[in-house]
Amino acid sequence: MDDDALRAMFAGLRGEERRVRRPPPDGQGGLLLGEGARVVQRCLDAGHHLRALLVSTAYNGPLPSPAVPTLRLDPEEIQRLTGFGAMREMLGAFDRPPDPAAADVLPGARRVLVLEGVMNPSNVGTIIRSATALGVDATLIGPGSADPFGRRALRTSMGAALVHPWAITADPLADLTSAGFALLALTPDEQAAPLHTAITRHAGDRVALLLGAEGPGLTDAVLAAADERVTIPMAPGVDSLNVAAAAAIACWVLASGGQARE
User: Given 95, 111, 128, which residue is the final one in a domain?
Assistant: First the structure.
């Protein structure tokens, strides 16, 4: 692959990024973009095929796959080519695998997160990193949420989205209800049940915790469909947490069954 072909592969990537996953018009999987040497290596370790590398001239370290076609540019040229405001030392263009379906990740799962309208890719990546680290079984990406395999989400998850079971679904509540999950809606409402109390009460159930967007939170329709509304008790004068911070606490409580762990 010559430099012109490499430039064409990496050109205008900013304009191609989407908050919500849309299959490309050619019906193929498109590109999975791994940013940073560590994430590129984790993509390789997960078995994804590396098509090409874009590497900053400011980086003097080893390449993860020296035989792969590589384009080296200075940081300013990279910014002009890709449209990104900034980029870590390298960007790997991998073949993107097909997106899993809910039916692929729910069998055997007992503790699940559900994201509705979580548009910020960094929040989605952080949530998936927490879910992976704290033992949550799967995450369903509902309407309006960012793509876990998007560049920023994958970077923020530090590659956790490569190993954590997740699926993008248009109707996560239907998927979960048919699978027998209890639906708990996380809300800042002080009248809701404390999260740890509700999780303890549902110790024998399959539980899905619903998380909404920054600011508006879960929609009225989702709140109405939930079996129970739950909250993380706050100190006086504090109304809520960032959704990624709330998710990290919730993942710990979910995985612990509401009880303290060693």
Answer: 95
CA 116 vs. chain centroid, Å, equals 12
Distance CA 75, CA 71 (A): 12
For residue range 67-101, list pLDDT tens digits in order.
899 999 999 999 999 988 888 899 999 998 888 89
- Look up the pTM and report it: 0.90
Strands in the chain per DSSP E: 31-35, 50-56, 70-73, 90-95, 111-115, 138-141, 166-168, 181-186, 193-194, 206-211, 228-231
* Domains: count for the chain: 2
Are residue 86 and residue 193 in the same domain, yes or no?
no
Rounded to 10°, the helix 243-256/121-133 angle is: 20
Q: How far apart are CA 232 and CA 186, in angstroms?
A: 8
Which residue carries 């498109």 as its tokens? 30
Count the neighbouring beta carbons within 10 Å of the beta carbon of residue 169: 22
Residues 221, 118 share a domain: yes
Nearest to 205 by CA among 233, 221, 227, 223: 227
